[in-house]
Write a structure and sequence with these properties.
4 domains; alpha+beta; globular; Alpha-Beta Plaits; seven-stranded antiparallel β-sheet; five-stranded antiparallel β-sheet; Uridine Diphospho-n-acetylenolpyruvylglucosamine Reductase, domain 3
Length: about 525
């Protein structure tokens, strides 16, 4: 091991052998171990480190923001490869960015140039672009805009063997189950190129079920997609070519307080089919909308046209279990309800704020009238200006932070981010209401995608053991609905068993097979996604 670090120093790299404790755990509080930390400052230096590690059979764990909840950046021996030094944004082309750039900084940087990068995980203030790509990060706005995968048009990747691959979307598409990578895409140039198998794993389309568990697979498949969401086990991303869109439209925020589980599912379903019909232009959704209206007791189908612009860019959820993590006024209100939806609605300049807000007021009035006093009426809270919107969003972002502050010393928070197809949202909520322990289970998250976060905070080792068993039980039930054991956090080192429930032993072996082909010496991010024993 010392020979590897000596060679790194000869190349002018920073090698830190003491005082890197902060790099031995992530936000899950899971801890690992390493001999030293290596900090390259350029893409070329990353390639040199990986080449050396491959030659010395030295394990590398790639680290940047350390915001993971799965143990992904926690080292399993060997060296830590810290990419924070790669933080350049191309001043001539803002779509070219290095992985160490903080996501919030990048979003602000492109916004100042009239552009928008939609991925917005809760950790955006401290996570990096590289981490977002490694986990295919999403966030609240993914309900309308989609995850990171939709905003990556190219990558530069240092492969575990030390070769550098630079590939854009459309350059290499799978054929007959393999990617044929021409030698000119590799540096140093290879005469024979590479043959990489396409992972043979069943995968639902993202819109059907939000999923960040395991290697992405589709047929045909673009090579760029192989690396996005692969948790760093197939290569080290050193440069990202992003897809930037025009500045986001003006918007307002609102909270809808909903009294029952059934009412919650009805409203979420109605809003989702409105999005499909009017935003996605899915004409098959009209029958779904009319069916939902019938279930709500609304006979006036002509109301559809009046709500043609009612489709949120996000649908976030606060279950009443998180009431004491909110501001006092909202906490008191939420305790009387099953939960509350936080929604952002974008509007065009020719439509205007008040006209858009009036559509929502009319929809809420229609929903309350259809309920005929069977439950508490929907209560609303509206944020019309940026300050008010920030107040509403701060509540959502503050929930996981406050939960982390409540983790007992020596305990590990059980963080679940199961997702299911939207048609099974009711079953998922019923499952949680039936099986989660009262008083220490907290539910919130991306309800528009039927993707909810459940956090269990054990107070002692007995509860921590019980939480582990409950997690596996819930994973089986979620998978029986065609769901995913991770909608956005990934698998890391903590959720191997759940991934096997979802993919089966054959799926796990398929990931191992691909890993061994790409990383024959087993040096890169060992322990992430699958064990290699």
């Amino acid at each position: 091991m010392s020979a590897f670090f000596d060679q790194c120093r000869l190349l002018g790299l920073t090698v830190i052998e003491t005082e890197f404790e902060d790099y031995l755990q992530d936000e899950s509080r899971f801890r690992g171990h390493a001999d030293a930390l290596v900090r390259p400052g350029t893409q070329a230096q990353v390639a040199e480190v990986v080449t050396l590690a491959n030659g010395f059979n030295t394990r590398l764990t790639v680290v940047s923001g350390k915001t993971s909840l799965t143990g992904g950046p926690v080292p399993a021996g060997g060296a830590i490869l810290d990419l924070k030094g790669l933080e350049r944004i191309d001043p001539e082309d803002p779509s070219i960015v290095e992985p160490g750039v903080i996501l919030r900084h990048y979003k602000d940087w492109v916004a100042a140039r009239g552009l928008f990068f939609p991925p917005d995980p809760t950790s955006e203030e401290s996570c990096t672009l590289g981490g977002a790509v490694a986990c295919n990060a999403s966030g609240a706005l993914s309900y309308l805009y989609g995850p990171t995968r939709d905003y990556v048009r190219g990558l530069k990747v240092v492969l575990p063997t030390g070769s550098v691959l630079e590939v854009m979307r459309g350059d290499v598409t799978s054929r007959d189950g393999v990617f044929m990578v021409p030698g000119h895409m590799l540096s140093p140039r290879q005469q024979a190129g590479l043959v990489i198998p396409v992972p043979r794993i069943k995968s639902l389309p993202w819109r059907v079920c939000k999923n960040a568990a395991g290697i992405f697979s589709s047929h045909p498949m673009d090579l760029v997609d192989l690396f996005i969401g692969s948790e760093g086990i197939l290569g080290v991303v050193v440069e990202i070519r992003t897809v930037l869109v025009p500045s986001r439209k003006p918007r307002f925020g609102l909270m809808l307080y909903l009294s029952t589980l059934e009412r919650t599912v009805e409203v979420v379903t109605l809003l989702d089919v409105l999005r499909r019909l009017f935003h996605d232009k899915d004409i098959t959704a009209k029958g779904s909308v009319e069916g939902v209206l019938r279930e709500l007791g609304i006979a006036d189908f002509a109301a559809l046209d009046r709500f043609s612009r009612v489709f949120p860019s996000c649908m976030e959820w606060f279950h009443r279990s998180v009431a004491d993590l909110l501001s006092p006024d909202r906490a008191r209100r939420l305790r009387d309800y099953y939960g509350t939806l936080y929604i952002e609605q974008e509007y065009s300049e020719n439509q205007g704020l008040m006209e858009s807000a009036e559509h929502w007021a009319e929809l809420v009035e229609l929903l309350n009238a259809s309920d005929e006093g069977q439950s508490l009426p929907i209560k609303t809270e509206v944020g019309l200006d940026e300050k008010q919107i920030r107040s509403l969003k701060t509540e959502r972002k503050g929930v996981p932070e406050k939960l982390n502050e409540r983790i007992q010393p020596g305990m590990v928070k059980m963080a679940m981010d199961f997702s299911v197809p939207v048609e099974h949202l009711k079953r998922l909520l019923e499952l949680y209401d039936r099986k989660l322990p009262s008083g220490r289970a907290y539910i919130f998250g991306h309800i528009g995608n039927a993707h909810l976060h459940v956090n269990l905070l054990p107070q002692n080792t007995k509860e921590q053991e019980e939480d582990g068993l409950l997690y596996m039980d819930l994973a089986r039930e979620v998978c029986s609905m065609g769901g995913s054991v991770s909608g956005e956090h990934g698998i890391g080192k903590l959720k191997h068993e759940a991934l096997e429930i979802m993919l089966g032993a054959e799926g796990i072996e398929e990931i191992r097979r691909l890993k061994k082909i790409m990383d024959p010496n087993g040096i890169l991010n060992i322990g992430n996604m699958v064990s290699m024993s």
